[in-house]
Amino acid sequence: MLVHSRAGKRATWAVFLLLFVPLFAVPLLVILAASLATHWSGAFPSGPTVERYAAATSGDSLQALTTSLATALAASVLALTLGGWAALAAASLRSRGRRLLDALFILPVAVPSVVVGLAVLVAYSRPPVLLNGTRWIVILAHTVLVTAFAHQSVAAAVRRLDPMYEQAAAGLGASPARVLWRVKLPLLLPSLTSAVGLCFALSMGELSATMMLYPPDWTPLPVQIFAATDRGSLFTGAALAVVLMTSTLLVLAAVSRIRTRASYR
Amino acid sequence: MTATAATAATTAPARSRTVPAWVWALPPVAVLALAFLYPLVLVGRQSVTPDDGGGVSLDPYADVFASEVFRDALTTTVWLAAGSTVGCLVLGFALALVIAFVPFPGGRTVARFVDVFLSFPSFLITLALLFVYGSVGMANGLWTDVTGAADGPFHFLTTPWGVLLAEITFFTPFVMRPLLAAFSQLDTGQLEVASSLGAGPARIIRQVILPEALPALAAGGSLVLVMCLNEFGIVLFTGAKDVTTLPMLVYSKAILESDYPAACVVAVVNIALSVGLYSLYRVVSRRAGA
């Protein structure tokens, strides 16, 4: 609809592919190819094998996958509750309070995740609350890290909401609770689902804070991948990465099925 | 999970006649304070408490600021982040524009594919680049096969340029995602009207799409700037001795050297830098009308 001539469209698509394929598709394909190879010393990988997948879906690696899924689920639900609540509460405040609340909840994005890991480690390795060495310290750190993203996307969507809808509903006699439940939340649903998808994906891939504080019995998949590649098993790392990407993709696909008429395209 | 947030927030406006609105903002703020602000305060306190038990002192700061490693890390971090952000904004805007407004078969798959990129642990990009441009990777393999030379021409992976390429690749989707969301809410009728009134594609982009996209560009750009300042996985994985950034320094001081006061000093500097730049960016982008 922006470019009308056939030649113009073709040229645009060609430029798009020229940028997109080497930058984004090739790395993905390379990881996929490497996960199926035994060695790679020339232009192409050689020695096809599926053995790495057998190893990547059993024992420690399987446990790492379930650990990652559980952590990401817990963190994204907690983050959506916390961030979404704050965004909706901020919307009913005056502009100064709203700006303060927004700034407060965006702060975890600005703080490096390594530092969040360090801070949580320093704070919860001492009384009164001793979480160091438990899975809860990992879930806590992940929740802190992704809450900002949940808050940011819900807050942006709340700002974009056309106030006409809620005013019309309120004018027709709906209580504020009913306006929120029947008007605002359905309109916000695309943002809420995309927020939860983003949080889940980020938590699944989180490495920096996790590296600072994971206990031996709660090793998420990214740490497992790092451990494999760090000891030189690049191909095992690639197979684990494919497992991670596939499981994240499956969850994202499930989340994106929740759609409403609120989005045009 | 939507329901949880919903029930929590449903009651907020309902009782606002009896309870002031700010009371409903207190529970999330309290949780955030306990989980995030309190730990940050402790990091600040640790940074002025040397291990030798001499009470409060600024010695850790003096020691860290005097070290060559720290000053190198600081400059490297800043220019890498700035360069990556510019690259991501340009590339992300161009790609999102094509996906949204010059639709092609499979465009939705591409958009979905971009989402998957967000779920990559960032260091996987470096891993992939090792297979592509590494000393025994694809590009060098092709070169030696074709020319018969013993060695390929690509050696930039362990330099800052390798990190820059990895960061642009990894963070561009963070610009594209909010842009695609903004584009999906843009009524295409506006484009048709502008077009039928005789505006060319360049003018439509400049006068119709860009104003709509500015908030998303500002949001995506500021996010990427700060995420690049804070990036850890990519640098860790590059394994280059001469590319040390601030987050990398925090990790090596705390976990490898167990020097917590020094780690906390670097952490405080990194926080000041990231939060400072981020606030500046937000103020500027608000002034710009975003």
SS field, number of helical segments of chain B? 13
Q: Greatest interface and its residue counts?
A: A-B, 111 and 113 residues
CATH architecture of the largest domain in chain A: Orthogonal Bundle
CATH T-level fold name of one domain in chain B: MetI-like fold
Q: Helix- and strand-based class of chain A?
A: mainly alpha
Report the strand count of chain B. Answer: 0
Characterize the main sheet of chain B.
none
Which spans of chain A of ≥5 residues are poorly predicted at pLDDT below 50?
A: none
Write down the domain tally of chain A. Answer: 2
Distance between the termini of chain B: 31 Å
Average the pLDDT over all residues of chain B and give the rounded result: 80
Oligomer: heterodimer
Structural class of chain B: mainly alpha
In the CATH hierarchy, what is the superfamily of the largest domain in chain A? MetI-like
Q: How does the major sheet of chain A shape up?
A: none
The share of residues in extended strands of chain B comes to under 5%
Describe the global form of chain A. globular
Q: How much strand content do the residues of chain A show?
A: under 5%
Describe the structure.
The complex is a heterodimer of chains A (265) and B (290). Chain A has two domains: 1-49, no CATH class; 51-256, MetI-like fold. Chain A is built from eleven helices and no strands. Chain A has helices at residues 6-35, 51-56, 59-91, 95-110, 113-123, 135-160, 163-171, 176-205, 208-213, 221-230, 234-256. In chain A, helix 3 (59-91) packs antiparallel against helix 8, helix 6 (135-160) packs across helix 8 and helix 10 (221-230) runs antiparallel to helix 11. With 290 residues, chain B is mainly α. Chain B has a domain at 75-243: MetI-like (MetI-like fold, Orthogonal Bundle). Chain B has 13 helices and no strands. Chain B has helices spanning 2-14, 26-47, 59-66, 68-101, 107-118, 123-133, 138-147, 160-184, 188-196, 201-229, 233-238, 246-256, 260-287. The two termini of chain B are 31 Å apart. At the A-B interface, helix 1, helix 3, helix 4, helix 5 and helix 6 of A face helix 1, helix 2, helix 4, helix 5 and helix 6 of B.
